[in-house]
Amino acid sequence: MKRYVLTGGPGTGKSCILQALEARGEHTIKEAAEDHIKLRQAQGQPEPWTEADFQDKILELQVQREERVHPEAERVWIDRGVADGLGYAEPGTETYERILEEAKKRHYDKIFLVESLDHTKKTKIRREDREEAQKLGDKMKEVYLSLGYELITIPDGPLEERIGRVLEETE
Predict the structure, then answer these.
(1) Sequence ranges of the domains in the chain
(2) pLDDT at 134
(3) Three-state DSSP class for 123?
(4) Cα(59)–Cα(55) distance, rounded to whole angstroms?
(5) In which element (H, E) is residue 8 found?
(6) DSSP secondary structure string for all residues of 27-90
(7) pLDDT, tens digit, for every residue of 114-154?
(8) How confident is residue 11, by pLDDT bands cut at 50, 70 and 90?
(9) Which residues pair with 6 in a beta bridge?
(10) Residue 59 in contact with residue 99, Cβ under 8 Å?
(11) ∠ at Cα 145 (85, 119), nearest 5°?
């Protein structure tokens, strides 16, 4: 099975690309962090990212999702791989080391760095503004390069062009 990761800063359109791929019948894995944030907010925690075990919970959910991919799938598209957690975790912490250890166990066939859109805004779930999102996108690039991956850049543009680009790179 081929595993393709969509990475980049918050609000770059990764989830939109993933939704469009899913609508075309592709196997996909949604972003774990967004779902965890929504769950915790529904449970009454307005800022779950302030919880000490936040990144650990994201890692746990991401690993579960990646391990539950349908065994007959020829390929799967992943909205943020395990290694993305390294862009958010504090280097030198136990959490960072756990994420790094898990990231080194994983093999992704291609990493797509989805570049920032001009209209990234803060939301109830996305706490980063455009500048912070760009810095996180740069971190994601560094993370995957440090793990030995080559990145395929998906520039800003119409959704159909972005989808065409990722599909073209996987055929």
Answers:
(1) 2-168
(2) 83
(3) coil
(4) 6
(5) none
(6) EEE--HHHHHHHHHHHTT-S-GGGSTTHHHHHHHHHHHHHHTS-TT-SEEEEES-GGGGGGTSP
(7) 997 665 555 555 566 667 778 888 999 999 999 999 999 99
(8) confident
(9) 79, 112
(10) yes
(11) 65
Neighbours of 23 (CB within 10 A): 10
Q: What is the pLDDT of residue 40?
A: 93
Round to whole Å and give the CA distance between 97 and 3: 23
Q: How many residues does the chain have?
A: 171
The per-residue pLDDT of the chain, averaged, comes to: 91
Place of tokens 């898990």: 102
Q: Residue written as tokens 């993370």?
A: 143
Residue with tokens 């790094």: 100
Evaluate whether 17 touches 162 at the Cβ level (below 8 Å): yes
What's this model's pTM, rounded to 2 decimal places? 0.90
Domain 2-168 has CATH 3.40.50.300: yes
**Residue found under tokens 């805004």:** 121
Asked whether 112 and 7 are in contact (CB, 8 A), the reply is: yes
